[in-house]
Protein 1
Amino acid sequence: MSLHTVTLLPSGARQMFPWGTLLSDALLDMGVPLETSCGGKGICGRCTVAVGQIPEEVIACRTPLTRDITVRAGQALLEGPVALPAVPGSSALSLAVDIGTTTVRVSLADITRGASFEIASFLNPQRRHGHDVISRIAAARDRSKLRSLQKLLREALSIRIEKALRAMSIEGERIERVVFSGNTTMLFLLYGIDVIPLGAAPYPLRVRDLPALPARDLGLACIGSAAAEALPVLGAFTGADLVGALALCAGQGIEKNAFFIDLGTNGELFVLDGHGRAFATSCAMGPALEGMSVSWGMTADHGAITRVLEGTAGLEFRMIGQGEPRGIAGTALVDLSAILLEKGVIKPGGAFSSGPGGPPLPAPLTLEQDKGGRHIGLWGRIRLTQKDVRSLQLAKGASLAASLLLLEEAGREPEDIERVLVAGAFGEHLDLDRFRRLGFIPGFPGARMEFLGNTSLQAAARACIDPGFIARAAACRDRTREISLSARPGFQDLFLRSLEFPA
């Protein structure tokens, strides 16, 4: 089989791939994440790239390699921390892995010293088959795509782990154990467990406690002698990430009158009532908060606007890295929407204010009109469209409706809640006050708002260091009542009522 070279400009990076490899796959392997919100069907156009010395635009997900090719694209993949701490040669080591729908993160756990730190992060390559769990379950009905979903994840994990360990001069044989966390679908795809039942009611589970295996059985040859384990799952859409958070809260003495939400494409929530009982559910928030399904959305990567602040001369943008912004992250979308809502530019129903004499836009924003409709210009070509606001509303509506029904099931009023716990890597740059201002969660008067970070990765790391953590997590799972929103009468009506922003 012939090989062809892909060259990236302006970096000059080169890599060879077999004849027929899709250009989108090649670019992802080279560290260039492309938007494929259509699941690789070639209809969204968001993976368009310029190729050739005389640039020609092509759809990367539909372009196979038949010759050497030059692509004008920057390298923009999350690669984890640049500077990694030294690890004593005497330390016992394990790996913690959080398999997110959008991003995969890896931590090294120093068991001897009882510490852990992140060593790698990368975009989940399964995103070429869809940006959300449901899309990937649907793709898995095609056996070739099912094999692709599993292969993509296993190979990416192996490559990134090997690269991170090599950068730290750590031999793979030193890794004693690897613990996985994540939502149920991601873990099932990794383990090769059928995910098709997860896509249709009543969403039956074949297993809730995944077996311990040699890491090599999961494609991780670089740490093949290590034992691989996973945190237990609760339900089809309440995965190990939620169960891990339950166990972390229990370990910190958080046992009652608490509300927890893990923000992501699939939002996971639980409420601890006044008697220490847990009630959990999940909701499809969509990919807007993680920068997907948004016109100029992107993950919190180099070039992403992550915060929008109000300054004396207008709005100020904060971004990751130097240079010109390439897009807007979900956290900045929350900031901007909350500001425009307060100024009356966005109405509670989500529509832009129209007509002369309407509320003025803060500098440097501009109101523009083209054949695609009205939009708000932010910076260069970056814009906020009416569709983007609608995507945010869908996430907000799902989050609020799920929160209210979960409180009802737990017999708690918002006034009863003493602690509101927000988790997810998304929240690193999130303004919790603006998040609450948009109505993603009930008001919770008097509750202390806390951001916990990536509890899924934290729980996996804790399991690496504490051998009894997985058993305690399973015990927390077994005393948790899962609430199925789809089976609740009136949920759809409540969701529709929850779409509107607070006045």
Protein 2
Amino acid sequence: MKKKIPLLIGALCAQALFGQAPTNEQLFEMLKATQKQVAELKARTLVAEAEATQAKAQLSALQNRVVENEQSSSDSIDLANLISTNAEYSYQVLDHTENSNTKQLRQLEALRDGDLKSRVTIGGNINAIANYQKSNTESKFGWLMRHPTSANQFGNEVSEAVIHSVSLQVTGRVTDYLTAYAELLYNPEQNFASGATITDLERNNVNMRRAYLLYGDLASSPFYASIGKMDIPFGLNDTVNPFTNSTNWHSFAGLAYGAKVGYAANNWHLRAMAVQGGAQFRNANTSVDGTAVPSKLNNFALDANYTFEFDDDSSLLAGLSYQHGSAYCQDYEIRAPFGPNGVKHFENCDDENPAIAAYLKYVRNKLNVIAEYAQTLDEWPGTFNPVNPDFADFAAQKNTTFTLGASYGFDFGLKNDVELSAEFSRFIAGDDGSPWEKQDQLVLGASYFLNTNVKLFAEYIHVDGWVPLNFLSGGNTFAGPSDDSWSDQDATTDAIVLGVTAAF
């Protein structure tokens, strides 16, 4: 038929050309043929449209499969990066010498700066040391990085090669605003367990040092909040020493259960914390209805500091703190059957003893200078000995502590600078002339970072006085009943420490 239509049209055109008009029959046949051709064209168009629709459907299905494959690939990448490590971050949050009670701010900065890319970041920190200590008084060693336990350090000379402490941390990004943090600590040399020596099983335990939920996103807001077991915002408590903590840290660095709110912007860092009552883990104690049972949230601490920026290389941090209930509130204790006891730390207090602190930190290029002063507002009742008549003239005193230190990085042609430091700190707990009057600590240090997470260090420490917080104004009941003082102003300690701090 397709061939007949052109022939028919050609014949009609020829007839018209030669003056012959087509007949009605011919016109009818041409009409029928044309109609049929149109019908066929319509059918072909419908088939083409159907084929086009089918092709579009296939294309859409392929596109969906590509998207699904991409999502699946992305999910696989997220799964592979669910857990990661950051050695530099671990060093910063687990280091005990710098930013000792501002770790939460560092965590928020790490989140803001993209340092914690995975859902969970794990890591740890190990302090390995070798030391030699010499005392002029048998079994009384005043270096505070070791608990002053006579059963643990015997004689006039002691030496060690030990793991001083191990910390493990887990930081979890729960949401963009919520961060979970947990820190485990192994520290037989400074453990409060009942075991006498570092080899006793009681001291070789692992405890949850810190654990809290942290809410905040510095990229969106300068405010943050946390709840759990954390550092109390009181004082600076930092040191320029490579390893040995300042006397201020030993006297006032608090760790407690509670809730904290903070603000960090425009060079200001403001913090307030509600602290659980009773004797907390370090330096916090308020009476709870005449008991030490921590059944009320009745203690608090406030801190405010401001950073003055002079130029790109220099700044001055200045801060003030207040704590409603410090640890220096116990009375002199007489406990049967041992008799006179002296001050027993972590015991119940009749009344709270507030404390204040002021601190400065100056940084200029390679120079770092710190200064800190802290004092209780009331006398520490237990610093008066009511038993021994020889001590009757020594009145109760406020607990006062101060630290002054400086460090500088020297270029000796190595990959990194060698930092040399010197720091003096004093702990005053007694009246002039009393055996528990004061304890002075001088530390000369040198440190070198192999990289951002490994530090080599050496220290020389000299300590004048022997004033342990437990039994401070009385006798050590574990050594037998006595109304004499276990403290000794004539005792001195010299120590040399070599060590490595490594984070992973």
